[in-house]
Amino acid sequence: MQEQTQSWELLIGTYTNQEGGGIYLLDFYPATGKLADKRLVAETVNPSYLAISKNRQYVYTVNETKAGHISSFRWNEDRSQLIQVDQQPSQGNSPCYVDVNPEENLLALANYGSGSILVYNLDDHGMIGEDHVISQHEGSGPVMPNQKAAHAHCVKFDPQGKYLYALDLGIDQIIGYPVVTNEIMGKATSILAFDPGDGPRHMIFHPLKDMAFVVNELSGSVVSLKVDHETGLLQRIDRASTLPKNFAGRNACADIHITANGKFLYVSNRGHDSIAIFSVSENGELESLGHEPVQGKWPRNFILSPDEKHLLVANQNSNNITVFELNPETGLLTFTGNEISVTRPVVMKF
Fold first, then answer.
1. Quick one: pLDDT band at residue 180, thresholds 50, 70, 90?
2. Model confidence pLDDT, tens digit, residues 140-179
3. Number of domains composing the chain
4. What CATH number is given to the structural domain containing 139?
5. Which one of 37, 44, 217, 229 has the fewest CB atoms closer than 10 angstroms to its CB?
6. Is residue 339 part of a domain?
7. pLDDT tens figures, 196-224
């Protein structure tokens, strides 16, 4: 009976410009795949991406507005509310991504609207210190209006904490910045150019190998990369479409995740409204295994459960989160029938 009642906390970030709100907390029951007990735990504007400290006490979020901010929160004693600890300007427009380095003393964010990245100091109590680096990207791409100018969409520290990678959708590049010491960021030392019009959006690292994977929003593709963690250099391995060959409608890829064993890779398609499923070979080659409808519209974000028995999808335009069972042998997904209503969900973190 205890297995049936065990639950994990799931944080949800939302767009708030329609009905207010902010960050919600849900209970996820792994034995049944059910979501329950939605409650608002922090009123904050457009918390569109979240990061959580290793000790689970602090939550960091971008506030995606034209005059953007980065906010930090800590849990109160009974974990019923997130209390705001600090808030600083993003020094750019429409911040959309936040990441914390492994040492948890640097916080990086990407300003989509202004095409810039910013790195702040971070202390042990969630306080955001002085900024070290403001890097303004320049350029454009062939897809209009999406690539009229630079649009930084993701900042990701490598697992060793030696480099920060910035993905810019507007100029089809990943730019690598070295972490010179635990507290100082250096100037860009590596640039990987993608195909014109790709629009790189999100990046993840292979859990076991020196590889990374990037989802391209505009071209509907995923790319595997070789990573040199000493030099920061990236090299392309393989590329695959996230869409069926007969699909001709509008689509914009969004999120990307990989299983802990590195065998299966997942990407969300907004428009086709599906999760694209891939197998990953030992050398990083990608093979499409199919597509699973998300039972909603515009799947901006999704997440694997901690035990990887389920995959949960945040469907922004249908205001629901849907739950799928994940087959560990095949990587394929099956809709459980479980879902819950949340207004404009855009990010989830266990």
1. confident
2. 999 999 999 999 999 999 999 999 999 999 999 999 999 9
3. 1
4. 2.130.10.10
5. 37
6. no
7. 999 999 999 999 999 999 999 999 999 99
From the list 259, 297, 293, 296, the residue with the least C-alpha distance to 278 is 259
> pLDDT at position 114, please?
97
Read off the pTM.
0.95
Interval 307-334 mean pLDDT: 98
Query: Measured between alpha carbons, how far is 161 from 107 in angstroms, rounded to an integer?
Result: 12
- Is 169 contained in some domain? yes
224 in a domain, yes or no? yes
pLDDT tens digits along 96-109: 999 999 999 999 99
pLDDT tens, residue by residue, 48-71: 999 999 999 999 999 999 999 999
Residue range(s) defining the domain that contains residue 142 = 44-241
